[in-house]
């Protein structure tokens, strides 16, 4: 059956709605930067395309480093005023921002679909998690701030493109609620219009928000090294994170650096395959483009046949395609597991890594087909990667030791508990891990030896919401842990000599 794009979901439709909702932040065919409490047409807009179908969308207006320095200095002035605003007023302004985000929930979600390729259900969930999560802080902030004060300078936020609302906007609003002015950098690879709209709604309520676009190389001196910055909050890959970690450590600056790790799922003396089959599709949400995805399965060799019998039917049934394609214009938007990866370059990189791994000895167990996907007739599909499962990626392949950040699973077979643990700890620390085993005693004995901040027993772990803490072991995390009251503690000053829970060069302190 031929598919059509759902009426009202085109980029031009979303753009017209942005111009109507926040004309101060959107101008003709470009978004603006926000600094010194004003929207400014500075920066050089770069061309951008939607991963959904390759169509043109608004690109980020990149600033130069001198302008970024001026913006950070202006943010410090905002910070010095905002830190003295009474908590009751800060709560009221953040709550009003949440009401505005709720009013424009569907437009924010549509922008996420168009800009970063999130399926409709997951895009809505990203917006909802931001709103609901910050409301939890608004309702319970007083005891979290008892005996604490805002930082000496604003919080700088540098985050990846995959969760603009539930990670970046969530963090920005909580940081402002705690008494800090905030700077946010728009991710290079997508989400600029969604973040611009969210920040416009926040700025209207008087929140001290600065939103800047630019390359990491141009803006890092201002956003990481500038003496005005009181804390750096980073979410991204290990290579960039390592450079940020070096800078903040040298400067003795407060920091929260969430980095990638190879999250693993171990299978040992396990029989509940029905439950495992049910969870496999959920592990492919958003094409595994998230920091808590599970791209590696470590499987007891004698269970491999049973593992495949449970895994392969689930992965063969994944729903992939254009997130806005419907059979009839009146139909609701489709329920998909994932759409495109973030761009065509990433798709090519993943495809090349798979081909190289197979050429060097990996065994392909499953390869998805475009024939099984939902596409519009003749649409650009260069950003789509169909699910792939490889057995035993060679040590020379990046797929052996690093997170692919795409719908590529790898399987490693082991014969002993020692091999199981070694394979599950392959990346020197991870954010999450899971061990599926029937025996509670076995789980209790092995789980503490798995170097992940959260270890699930037969169930996936997530970043968490509200009072759930989050961090990482090894190279997957640097600085203060977050979640619940720890997020507030990370961006406020406590008593003299306080040691925050976290992973620091001089100490590691668990909550």
TrEMBL record:
Instruction: State the Pfam families in the record.
Output: Aldedh
- Describe the location of the Aldehyde dehydrogenase domain by residue ranges: 44-485
**InterPro entries to which the protein is assigned, alphabetical:** Ald_DH/histidinol_DH, Ald_DH_C, Ald_DH_N, Aldehyde_DH_dom
SUPFAM superfamilies in the record: ALDH-like (SSF53720)
Name the UniProt key words of this record, in alphabetical order.
Answer: Oxidoreductase
Q: Identify the PANTHER family for this entry.
A: ALDEHYDE DEHYDROGENASE-RELATED
Name this protein carries in UniProt:
Aldehyde dehydrogenase family protein
Q: Which organism is it from?
A: Streptomyces hyaluromycini
